[in-house]
Amino acid sequence: MSRCARGTVEAGEYHVYTRSPGRVPFFRDDFDRTDFCVRLHKTVVKFHWRCMAFALMTSHYHLILEVEENRLQPGMKWLNGTYAQRFNKRHERWGHLCGSRYSLVPIESRRQRLRAIRYVALNPVRADMVERPQDWPWSSYPGTAGCAKPFPFVDDRPIRESFGDGEDGLELLRVFVEEAAEPVTKS
């Protein structure tokens, strides 16, 4: 049975995330992650999204998006639906891959955007998948921070502009994100 429509999703920026049901992985391997990135790229183009950041985890993913009015819902339906169908076929399974409908948090200020960007970049670190956010290849952060080739569907200009131009801006971005990942030591 299909879910009822969510209602109007206004134009704006959102932190969007989707989880798998229970212990089912959303991504089993790099083939799955690559396939998802290809589909995300197509979704960005087809539904006129701006993807500023993302991170693919094992059981879920995060996106920081700017969307036009009522373009988020059909895009998420297409992205999650086509990915789930291919995932199920490849892994010889059936049933839902998304534990529930995607969730979204409106981003209403520059400060909120920066906190969301840092949260998404640090997700692999906090999940003990890597020690540093720039080491997770299935995130936009390494490209945005100037540590790797960026994904072609990521438009991180608003993030970079928040920190300034050139190498100084990149350094400020890296400090903002990576210092939050350092463990707090008690004296």
Mean pLDDT: 92
Strand order of the largest sheet: 2-3-1-4
Question: Structural class given helices, strands, pairing?
Answer: alpha+beta
List the helices and strands in order.
EHEEHEHHHH
Indicate how many domains the architecture comprises: 1
CATH fold-level topology: Alpha-Beta Plaits
CATH superfamily, please? Answer: Transposase IS200-like
What is the oligomeric state here? single chain
Specify the CATH architecture.
Answer: 2-Layer Sandwich
Summarize the structure.
The protein has 187 residues and is α+β, with helices and mostly antiparallel strands.
Q: Keywords, please?
A:
Alpha-Beta Plaits; 6 helices
What do you see in this structure?
This protein has helices spanning 30-46, 72-90, 110-126, 141-144, 157-163, 166-178; strands at 12-19, 50-56, 60-67, 103-107. The N and C termini lie far apart (56 Å). 41% of the residues lie in helices and 15% in strands. The chain has one domain (12-181): Transposase IS200-like (Alpha-Beta Plaits, 2-Layer Sandwich), CATH 3.30.70.1290. The chain has 187 residues and is an alpha+beta fold. It has six helices and four strands; from the N terminus they run βαββαβαααα. It is globular. Strands 2-3-1-4 form a four-stranded antiparallel β-sheet. The mean pLDDT is 92.
How would you summarize the topology of this molecule?
Layout (H helix, E strand, L loop, with lengths): L11 E8 L10 H17 L3 E7 L3 E8 L4 H19 L12 E5 L2 H17 L14 H4 L12 H7 L2 H13 L9
Antiparallel strand pairs: 1-3, 1-4, 2-3
Helix pairs in contact: 1-2, 5-6
